[in-house]
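@channel anyone free to eyeball this complex?
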Amino acid sequence: MQQVVQEVIVCKKTDLNPGEMMESTFGKHSIVVARASDGEYYAFLNRCIHQGAALSKGKICGAPEPTDNLGEYDFKREGDILRCPWHGREFDIKNEGCMLANSKFKLKNFKVKVEDENVIVYK
Amino acid sequence: MVKTTTKDQKNTKQQSKLHLIDTDIHERAQYKDLLPYLDQPYRRYITDCHWLQEKHMPYTQPAVAGVDRADARVPDGRPAGSDLSFMKEQLLDPVGHEVGILTGALDPSPSSMHGWYEMATALASAYNDWQIENWLDKDERLYGSVHIAAQDPQAAVREIERVGSHPKMVQVLLPIDDKLWGDPFYHPIFEAAERHDLMIGMHHNEPPIHYGQWPRYFIEWHTLIPTAHMMQVTNMVFNGVFEKFPKLKLMMIEGGFTYVPFLMRKMDQQYKDLRHEVPWIKRMPSDIIREHVCFTTQPLEEMTKKEFLQIIEQMGSDEMVSFSTDYPHWDYDSPYESLPPNLGEDLTRKLFSENARNFYPKLQRIGREK
Ligand code: FES
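replying in thread with the prediction:
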């Protein structure tokens, strides 16, 4: 019988700089822990909702803001957007992993807290 | 630290039952790999004269790692698709491929080169020798495509005669660029292919899809690639290629298949009205397509089972579509996740292996017992 995991130290605070991510595990799940540009930590299932790619192999980057002006590229939010390694779909780390193209869809996310030097994912 | 595995990388019992014949895998040569296979003076054009083949596409491909899956770069830093052992580890072993058909990534194809046919012919020969020695001879699952400089049909025929009888060469590869290959000028190529039990594979290279030019954005270009495929199918059928070479079949690679019902219907309607222009066509174009043309699945649009089955039904046959991953490119389709679930055992088997096996004569002798 597998025990249900309640709380796991997934990394040290210093393992990640803002705008970086790493793989870790939470129970039987492979997860990706991401640190946003403001230093906050977030955790998602390491599995893209499209075709299942390991998100940790993708890229943390920014994204051009939606705009009303044709031809305008306003590239913002460097460090807050996770792009999938396969088809490049963009997910907003700071907004529950919502897909930028259609916010109806979002990554499966986990609760995260920081205690002392540890980043902890919990249920 | 856990090792990341996607569903594609797990080899569960259920998953290994796929017996996949993957109809589009891109192995990649860098020019330095081809040097040992190139005669002079062609070798020195690369080593001494800074030969770089012309490229036309005016875009960066705005995915995470250019045209490739970001996780497919070889761990030692070489580009995706350039190492057999990594391809085995990432694709062939875990997915459980029965067969992978290599479709190259010599960019652009020798057939797309401008006027220097001699260099194109030399590169095509070097590529074929490199492919046989480093891929086809090294892994029994891998089958190959004969690369030619098709703009010089005589030279192309010589190359088909040279390597076409190799038991693991299953097709002659023609790029979809700015030439329509059904033109009688290119028919010697089809005659030679037929002689060696080779089918024709067409894969887009850099087709200008916008009135002979390029739309402004990659997203427009990539959306409209199927229009370039439609041109080739229409051209091959109405130019009578399949009437003249009845054993020949055509695999349309990486254009998807959801456009096919429209094209078949449109061609039939046009034929009823305009048959007098092409009197060598003596049956409905849709019948010719059903008998002679097959389409690879990737890149699959997301569909429900109902939508998927409707398209198959409108094609009038469930034997014209073959699964392809397009590994290692950015728009790779997972054999586990890209199709709608529960398509049924019969259709799944056809998509994953049977249709491709029936299509390629050289595959028909393998895997029967499985
Ligand atoms: S698998 Fe992530 S975008 Fe397709």
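from a first look: Chain B has a mean pLDDT of 93.
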